[in-house]
Amino acid sequence: MHNLKSIVSLAALLGGCSVMGQEPTVSTSADLRLESNYIWRGIEVYRNPTLQPSVEVGVDAFTFGWWSLIDWPGGGDMVVKEHDYYAYYSFESSGWEVSPFYYHFSYPNEVFDVTTEVGVVLDRSLGEWNLGFELAFDIDAAHGGIYAGASLS
Known about the structure:
The protein is 9% helix and 59% strand. It is mainly β. The strands form two sheets. Strands 1, 4, 5, 6, 7, 8, 9, 10 and 11 form a nine-stranded antiparallel β-sheet that branches. The protein has a two-stranded antiparallel ribbon with strand order 2-3. The longest helix is centred in the first third of the chain and has 14 residues, at 2-15. The radius of gyration is 17 Å and the shape is globular. The N and C termini lie far apart (36 Å).
């Protein structure tokens, strides 16, 4: 809960940093997904159905969010397995959308260590295609260190 309060406080502070005389652009979204299993970075973490709620708030170029994973084994009792808090800032540079980010992963009912990642996402539109790269560094080294990815969609 402390992390959520910190993110909300940061969002309020940054929202007040808009250009003088201009109202900040604010956006919000919420989502609830039901998935048959949970795969993260190519590894099947849970074979049970999962609920994945999320909330996101954007203030100008800043985005702040929360995502959770709720395990639902065989329709029995639901168990919260993970809460993630994140923030990123997006800007354009030489035709690329650049988004440095911060992610905090916590696992209330698991043996996994709490961990934090920082990194950057690069996206570029190529006509009907989109080219993307991601580089993340686990600053707590709880899950292995450096992650990299590329996509073409």
